[in-house]
Specification:
Elements (H helix, E strand, L loop, with lengths): L1 H21 L10 H4 L2 H27 L3 H14 L6 E2 L8 E2 L1 H11 L2 E13 L2 E11 L5 E19 L2 E14 L1
Antiparallel strand pairs: 1-2, 3-4, 4-5, 5-6
């Protein structure tokens, strides 16, 4: 009888500790990522954040050049996957006077036919669950005028629950957020 009681006690402690682990703040999307990850892992995610930003402007350049509707839709889907949901864009082509949805932003970019290059991309700080990146954006217009903007970009590191068959795993995903200039 005593062995059964001890086994029941250990089983309940095991279940409780698993429950606490699943509800732990360290896995919440709003946790401080600098406390969750080691500096080496944060450096790797920072490099991936730089790649996401580079990918975004590469997609914008492709978006401006592409005329095939099917290909444009694929580019739009790829761009949407880079960002957090319901992102609003400052219209940096018109001095940021208006917040635009992603679709409005892409149409504005298409009309302007601008090309984009970025340089000097670096981590400004880690805050909460995002990296704040700074970089210089060069916008080349059709009329051969160029101008540079210093951009502050948030890149969020968010946890998502993914299903792999019957198993569920926590997967950390980088998503771009709002930017300012």
């Amino acid at each position: 009888m005593r062995i059964v009681t001890i086994l029941l006690f250990l089983f309940s402690v095991s279940l409780y500790s698993q429950s606490v682990n699943h509800n732990s703040d360290e896995f919440s999307s709003s946790s401080n990522i600098s406390k969750v990850f080691t500096p080496i892992v944060l450096d790797a995610y920072q490099e991936q954040a730089k790649s996401k930003i580079n990918d975004f402007y590469s997609y914008l350049n492709l978006w401006n050049k592409e005329d095939n509707l099917e290909t444009k839709n694929e580019i739009k889907v790829a761009i949407k996957r880079l960002f957090v949901e319901d992102i609003k864009f400052q219209n940096f082509l018109n001095n940021g006077n208006t917040d635009l949805t992603l679709d409005q932003f892409l149409e504005k970019i298409k009309k302007e036919k601008s090309q984009f290059t970025i340089s000097k991309i670096e981590l400004d700080k880690i805050q909460g669950n995002f990296f704040e990146m700074k970089y210089t954006l060069t916008i080349n217009n059709l009329d051969a005028s160029n101008y540079n903007l210093l951009i502050d970009q948030k890149v969020f590191l968010l946890v998502e629950i993914k299903s792999f068959g019957t198993n569920k795993k926590r997967v950390w995903q980088l998503r771009m957020g709002e930017f300012s200039f």
